[in-house]
Write a structure and sequence with these properties.
The complex is a heterodimer of chains A (153) and B (175).
Chain A lengths: L2 H23 L7 H11 L18 H15 L4 H12 L14 H28 L7 H10 L2
Chain B lengths: L1 H21 L20 E2 L7 E2 L9 E6 L4 H16 L4 E6 L3 H11 L5 E5 L3 H5 L7 E5 L5 E6 L4 H17 L1
Parallel strand pairs in B: 3-4, 4-5
Antiparallel strand pairs in B: 1-2, 3-6, 6-7
Classes of the chains: A mainly alpha (153), B alpha/beta (175).
């Protein structure tokens, strides 16, 4: 083993060491797995009101961290998903839910796309029917029929 | 000829909606707490951490509840307006120092003046969550029965005071 090889070996060992140190640091602080699963599930369904287009899970805003902590505490107390969501909706409004609930105010949001699809479908149907009428084939005259059969010979 | 106008009509309708959208503020999420009782809490006061403030103390009065912090840039804009409002003395203003440190909050007050009758300290932001605070400054108008009558999201401006907050406070005081 030459000296350079030994140095290389030591260098790789050092690198691996630092990787394993990192892995330790990234370990979750919480130990209760079921609570963490619930926190994770809920935080992907709830909106961070500071960044608005991110979920609490994605956001690094301080409020998102606080809300996650709040959810964790509620989950530890054994509250159900629905109870936790209701708690936050009563404070921040329906907007905190990433998936808006179906109610009169959001009916257009939920049904609008289907309405557009239906309108488009009806439009397409009507247009195709009309086009079909325009292109109904006229019967060939005797002269034309003779020409065709000549060409196909 | 008529058929050719249909896409134009659709275009104009879409333009109409988008134009209206230009003047909406997506940050202003209507609070579900308006019309509901103000959440109760008991927090240490800034001037004396040994004593606490609770909204119960304000029952029978119309008051403003202003959430602020020394790290908040927009609070700097509204601060002189609040100072002026407090000098007029026509409505008590209770402050809540949100996720802040005492020395920085104190320094802020020393520099800009103190418009608050009482300041409660919400160091960890828990009461803030109870009030649905998501961007300081936020200001609540709370009536004599302890109900939230209005929420101002973002800084209190002269326009907001003149058009909304002062007329509302007067109406609630007359009740």
């Amino acid at each position: 083993m030459t000296l350079t090889r030994i140095i290389r070996f030591i260098a790789i060992l050092c690198l691996l060491q630092s990787v394993s140190l990192w892995a330790q640091e990234a370990q979750p602080l919480q130990t209760n797995a079921t609570v963490e699963v619930q926190v994770e599930r809920l935080s992907t369904q709830l909106r961070c009101l500071v960044c608005q287009n991110q979920t609490i899970a994605d956001s690094h805003a301080e409020l998102a961290q606080d809300l996650k902590q709040e959810i964790r505490e509620m989950a530890t107390k054994g509250m159900t998903d629905q109870a936790i969501i209701d708690y936050l909706v009563s404070r921040y409004g329906d907007f905190v839910r990433y998936k808006p609930p179906f109610n009169p105010a959001t009916s257009l949001l939920w049904l609008g796309p289907f309405g557009l699809l239906l309108a488009g479908g009806i439009g397409l149907f009507v247009m195709l029917r009309r086009r079909q009428k325009m292109t109904t084939d006229a019967p060939l005259s005797a002269d034309e029929a003779r020409k065709v059969s000549e060409l196909l010979k | 000829m008529k058929r050719a106008l249909i896409p134009l009509a659709i275009f104009l309708i879409v333009v109409g909606f988008l134009f209206k959208g230009l003047f909406l503020n997506p940050r202003e999420v209507p609070s579900p707490l308006v019309g509901k009782p103000a959440p109760q809490f008991s927090l240490p006061r800034l001037d004396n951490p040994e004593t606490t403030f609770s909204p119960k103390e304000m029952l029978g009065k119309v008051w403003l509840f202003n959430v602020w912090a020394s790290w908040c840039g927009a609070c700097r804009d509204e601060h002189p307006i609040l100072v002026e409002l407090s000098k007029a003395g026509f409505v008590p203003v209770i402050g809540m120092d949100y996720k802040d440190t005492r020395p920085e909050a104190q320094q802020w007050l020393d520099q800009g003046g103190n418009p608050y009758n009482i300041i409660a300290v919400d160091a960890d932001g828990r009461v803030g969550i109870d009030y649905g605070v998501y961007g300081v400054p936020e200001t609540y108008v709370i009536d004599k029965a302890g109900m939230i009558a209005y929420k101002q999201i973002g800084p209190v401006t002269y326009d907001a005071l003149r058009d909304k907050i002062i007329p509302l406070v007067k109406r609630l005081q007359a009740q």
